[in-house]
Design a protein that fits this description.
This protein has four helices and no strands. The chain is mainly α. It has one domain. Helix 1 runs parallel beside helix 3.
Amino acid sequence: MLVLLDASAGPGAQRIAQRVRFASDLETLWYLRQDVLVAVSAIEGEAAAQQRMQQINRLFRHGLPQTMGPRVHHRFTA
């Protein structure tokens, strides 16, 4: 996450990097992913940021309870 934020160097990236640096546990880092995504999207675009965040998401695979994993969104059709 810090590597992505350092590469982005957007206006809010330093503040988010500080929050990542001082995160006390894995769950806190999990919830900071969205902030990292927004900061990277501002510089690289959303598609590139999503792709880079997939690599980070893999790091959480076995460290979080299953209920905290990425959710698959299904579109409801009538």
